[in-house]
Amino acid sequence: MIHLTIDNQEIEVEEGTTILEAAQEKGIFIPTLCYHEALEPYAACRLCAVELEGKRGSRLVASCAYPCEEGAVIHTDSEMVRRSRRITVELLMASSEHLPLVKALAAQLGVAEPRFRLPPDDCILCGLCVRACRDIVGIAAISLLNRGMEKRIGPPFEIASNACIECGTCVLICPTGALKLEDITKEEKAIHRWGSPFDRRPCHICGDHDLEPHLSLGPHSILGEQTSGEE
After folding, report:
1. What's the number of CA atoms in the CB half-sphere (13 Å) around residue 144?
2. pTM, whole model, 2 decimals?
3. Which of 100-109, 127-136, 186-195 has the lowest average pLDDT?
4. What kind of architecture, by CATH, is found in domain 2-109?
């Protein structure tokens, strides 16, 4: 067993327990965005950052991924932590100030107005939908594309995916409502067209728009490949 202190509470946990899990067991609130108990820790949003005291001074660590250490002293609501979370929320507000989740976080941390402005976007790039599709469903029909300001969610290589089984896991796990069930169940699947520069070409045999690119060339091409080997 490991012994540590969180917000002046002495806690005993099993080895391998993360700081977030230890805090949740004791009813200590730590806000999260990219964390979900059904998925491996991702430590992307940094909203769950806490202050960890050390011999060389305090530092911020992501509580969802940082394991508890013997004798650790942790603060979940210090000024260092609040300052970090305010900056994180302010960056989220730049494009997602209209979302109820972001509004609630801003109100809780006292952030009234962001210093930065970007085009409104319901997606906060937490990655939950991508990881759920890959790690829970085992499909990986969507992924995180590009980097920096160009980062977004879409199918790999920005080509309409034929891997989606329309299970709705990505919709259920999305914390902001950016994904809608109709995005993946209607004929024109919006989730598989986000920002794609490629035209969707229907299959000349069945009319399915979501076949792999090499299958959209037409029946003569497909049959030609099959018969060429026989001749």
Report:
1. 15
2. 0.76
3. 186-195
4. Roll (3.10)
Q: Please report, to the nearest 10 degrees, the dihedral formed by the alpha carbons of residues 69, 23, 7, 49 taken in order.
A: 80
CA distance 68 to 178: 34
Task: Tell me the pLDDT tens digit for each residue of 166-223.
Answer: 888 999 999 999 988 877 776 555 555 444 555 555 555 555 554 444 443 444 433 4
Report domain extents, the chain: 2-109, 128-200, 201-231
Residues 6+ apart with CB under 8 A from 126: 33, 34, 44, 45, 175
Could you please state the CATH topology (level 3) that the domain comprising 128-200 is classified under: Alpha-Beta Plaits (3.30.70)
| DSSP H stretches of helix in 157-200 | 169-173, 181-185
Note whether 150 and 119 are within 8 A (CB). no
Helix crossing, 79-96 with 100-109: angle to 10°? 150
List the strands of the sheet with 59-62, edge to edge: 9-13, 2-6, 73-75, 49-52, 59-62
Dump pLDDT digits (tens) for 44-87: 999 999 999 988 899 999 999 999 999 999 999 999 999 999 99
138: Cα separation from own chain's centroid? 16
- Residue 53, judged by CB atoms within 10 A of its CB (0-12, 13-18, 19+), counts as middle
| Single-letter residue type at 81 | V
